[in-house]
Structure formats: C-alpha cells, structure tokens
Amino acid sequence: MSIVWRPFGFFRRLLRVESCNLTGAESLILFSPTTLAQKIREVPGIFLLSQRKGFSIMPEIQTNKREPELFSPPPGVRGMTKLDRTAFKKTVTIPVLKAKKEIVNRLMRSLKRAALQRPGMKRVIEDPEDEESRLIMLDPYKMFTHESFEEAELSILNQLNVNPQLSKYTLELTYENFKSEEILRAVLPEGQDVTSGFSRVGHIAHLNLRDHQLPFKHLIGQVMIDKNPGITSAVNKINNIDNTYRNFQMEVLSGEENMMTKVRENNYIYEFDFSKVYWNPRLSTEHSRITELLKPGDVLFDVFAGVGPFAIPAAKKNCTVFANDLNPESHKWLLHNCKLNKVDQKVKVFNLDGKEFLQGPVREELVQQLGQSKERKHSVHIVMNLPAKAIEFLSAFKSLLDGQQCSSELLPIVHCYSFSKDVNPTEDVRRQAGAVLGISLETCSTVHLVRNVAPNKEMLCITFQIPASTLYKNQTINLENQEEPHPKRKRTDNAFSEEGTQIA
Questions:
Q1: Distance CA 414, CA 471 (A)
Q2: Dihedral sign for Cα atoms in the order 392, 394, 396, 398
Q3: Per-residue pLDDT for 238 more than 90?
Q4: Which of 367, 427, 362 is nearest to 394 (CA)?
Q5: Are 73 and 186 in contact (CB under 8 A)?
Q6: 487, HSE (Cβ side, Cα atoms, 13 Å)
Q7: How far is Cα 97 from Cα 7, in angstroms, rounded to an integer?
Q8: Number of C-beta neighbours around residue 2 at 10 A
Q9: What percent of the chain has pLDDT over 90?
Q10: What is the 8-class DSSP label of residue 406?
C-alpha cells in the first residue's frame, strides 16, 4: 500500500507503508482518527509535529483554493455604527518560506510577486524555532505548492540554497491589517454598495455618501482618516451645488473641523477655506488641458474663476489674464493665490456677476484690442466653468461689440462647460449652446468629455469661436482684404486643426 502525501506547499512525496500490516477487513478509510494516528506512527518515515508558537511544518493535503474571505474581518462586525477597533481581531493561517537571515534581503527582491501584501504587516518575521532563520510570509491566494513559484523564483531559491518547502504560520489580524474597503464591506449591510473612495482636498477627505450609508457615516469618516495618512478630517456633502456662490453645505463626519486647507495641483499651490469656495480635485487634468491650448501672449478671460486653477497657470505661461468670481470668498482667495504663486502682477481680478463681467471688463478689453496693430498674433480665450448654468451666460455675447469697429480677427474662442443627461451628450450640449446663441454649432464646434459626474450624467466642454454675426449685430464686417475664418479652415491659434477638430 502507498499513500500520496503533500506537505503544505512542498513537492509531492510518495511514502511506502511497509510495516503497517492490515487484515483484509481493515482499511485506512474505516479507521477512527485515533486508530489511524496510531497506525501512522508505526510507519517508518512518517512524522507529525505539533504546532508551536503559531508555526508548523506539519504536512497537509494540497488544496488549490483558499477561503475567499480569508482576509475579511470577522462576521461579528456587521451592522456596527460606532467604530470598535478591537472587534476586528481574527486568526488566519498563511504559507511561509524559511530562509537564513543573511540572505533575506536579497531573496525578497526576487519574491515581490509571491510575498504577502497586507497593510501594517511585516513580510519578514523571526523564526520562533531558529534564531538564525527568518520566515517570509507569502500570499495564500498565489502560493499553494512549490509549483506556485515561477521559474525565475525557483532559480533564485536554488542559487541561495533555500528549500522551497512551504510551511504554515498562524497569524493574528487586527484592525490595522484590513483595508478600508474590506472594513466597510464587512460593516455595511450585505449586498449594499460600498464606496471607499473620496476626493482629497489637502487634509480633508470629501465624501458623497448614499442614503444607505448614512447610518454608518461617522464610522466611515473615521475609517477614512485611519486608513489614509495625512487625512485629519472627513466631511460629507449634504446638498447640491446650486446656490449663488457655488459652494455647498457639509457635515464633518469625523476628525478636526478645520476647513482651511492647502492643495498642490500641477505644481501650483492653492490655499482656501473649503467650506466657503468651490474646489474639485477631479478637474486637475482639465485645468492642464486648457492651459496647454494657450500660447504666451494670449488673452484669457476666466468668467467663473474660483480660487484660480485656470487663471494662475495661464498667467505663469505669460498670458494676459482677467479673472472673475461672484463669490466674495473665492475673490479673496483668488487674490491670495495669485500672490502665493507670484502672478499677482499678471492677473486682473474682479468680483462681479458673470454677465456683468462679460459686458463690462471683457467688452472693454476687446474694444481696446480692436485698435491695436493688425500685426497682433495672439488669440483670445474665454473660459466659462460653471457647468450648471454657464450656457445661459452665452447670451451676453449677442451684439457684445455692436457699434464698434468690425474685425474678423478678434473672434474669441469660448470654452463653455455644461452637464448633460442626454443619451447623446455631445449633440445635446451643441443644441443647448446653439439655442442660446441663435446659431448652429453642429459643424463649427468641438465637444470634450470632461468626466462622468453620476450615472447617466456627464460633464462636457464645448469649444467654438464666436461668429462675427453674433458679436456685431446688423453690421457688415470690413474684411480689409481678410477673410472670415471658415470652420473647416486651419486657424492661426492652436485650438483647432485643419479638420476643425480640437487639438488636445
């Protein structure tokens, strides 16, 4: 008779049972556990070691699966609303590899794939039975037998004279060893959506909790603070951004109530009171995209400037910048951030309603530029980042320069942001903007998808050059040997290609 036996994670061993005499009626299958153990002890070459200090090299039958909830918190935390970190203790068994301590560092460089990756946990621990050796904790979802090692890993083990036999180690997990998503998934009602993400604004974690998460809001806030270094406050938005000043009411879920924060975006620093101004870290890429469209010497009008994420990078690029925001707090921090980033001499700051800004300072600057030399090479850009309402402000461009010297050169390029829930958001935004202007933008505009805001809700940016017929109502343009730009023709600025598509 022979027994196929596999130690935990080691190669197959075939052990011959030579001194175990069985009668015809006897079978190992029919033995009780006690009798079987006695019979096995009589067989030369078979040995058992009891577990000591959580470490054992007792052979066990190989399994190609591991408990899928191995690293999930204990079931007793389900429904917890007040965080009790002590309730997360749990004992698991994982594979370990034994190696001499002097080669561990070299060995670990080659075992990055196989090593255990858990927060707050050392991957190399002391061998409780051998002071000269160390135990390397391995990922139980990847490592089952010596065959789980890749060829390159086995080669290193051979070079360093390391036995590939895997042993098992009893490990105690605590709250510190679980990831935030694992904690929330174990606490919230089973089957409910778990959102472990948030927007980081300096030291503040900004969450948008759903209704089923609200009973656990304080626990969720504390977990976000615990699991994210540098986060000292967690807040939840409790209303939509629908007021005049584009800020929202928020509730501090956990941590300090200090909303004064500092953020770094695209190598620029912004300071502000997050409870009083609008800031969205998810727009970082969009701020860069618009900045890259500008050339030194261009003019930028930022109608809804906030604390300066469009205006300040443009000023650093040696553009002439006019920045406006109706919110007095945004205006204050815009001035502050211009000084902080040393562009205060390059940005003219206003505290006006968007329409007043367009029909006042913007119009005055455009009129002034009409009298400048025809050699002027720069472009004029107008950014309107107020997605909920910006399209409504496009009406301010109707007849904006009526009564002034007509020119086809000074046709500003508008970047207007909007939301859409339409099945075809691109065409929807074109229709909305065209309806306000009273023209068709189907063939002379580009639409850029900025981000998905919510299910079936997109944020987009429509870019187009304001037609002369919109700026100069009831007047004939004096072309003076110049042709009005055709939407399909290459323009001198870098916002459009020959095909009329935007160059990102």
A1: 13
A2: negative
A3: no
A4: 362
A5: yes
A6: 14
A7: 13
A8: 9
A9: 65
A10: P
C-alpha–C-alpha distance, residues 364 and 417, integer Å? 24
Distance of CA 144 to the CA centre of its chain: 33
Closest residue by Cα to residue 261 from 279, 250, 251, 274 = 274
Amino acid found at 413:
I
Helix, strand, coil shares, percent, the chain, to 5: 30, 25, 50
Q: How far apart are CA 157 and CA 152, in angstroms?
A: 9
Q: Dig out the tokens for 147 from the structure.
A: 């065959």
DSSP per-residue codes, 238-275: -S-S-STTS---EEEEEE----EEEEEETTEEEEEETT
The total of other beta-carbon atoms located within 10 Å of residue 192's CB is 12
Phi, psi of 151 (to 5 degrees): -60, -45
Q: Token digits for 165?
A: 């036999």
Which secondary structure element, helix H or strand E, spans residue 438, and what is its range?
none
Question: H or E stretch including 34?
Answer: helix 33-41
Contact call for residues 334 and 311 (beta carbons, < 8 A): yes
The 10s digit of each residue's pLDDT in 145-173 is: 888 999 999 999 999 999 999 999 999 99
More confident residue, 201 or 369: 201
DSSP SS3 for 454? strand
Q: Can you name the residues that pair with 91 across neighbouring β-strands?
A: 172
pLDDT of residue 40: 42
Under a CB-based contact definition with an 8 Å cutoff, are residues 263 and 281 in contact? yes
Residue 57 pLDDT greater than 60, yes or no: no
DSSP code per residue over 196-230: ---EEETTEEEE---GGGGGGHHHHHHHHHHHSTT
Question: What digits encode the pLDDT tens for the residues 478-494?
Answer: 444 334 444 333 343 43
Q: Is 131 exposed, middle or buried (0-12, 13-18, 19+ CB in 10 A)?
A: exposed
Sign of CA dihedral 196, 198, 203, 204: negative
- Tokens representing 185? 């998934």
CA proximity to 8, closest of 72, 108, 93, 130: 93
End-to-end CA distance of the chain: 74
What are the tokens at 456?
A: 């079936």
Residue 210 CB neighbours (<10 A): 10
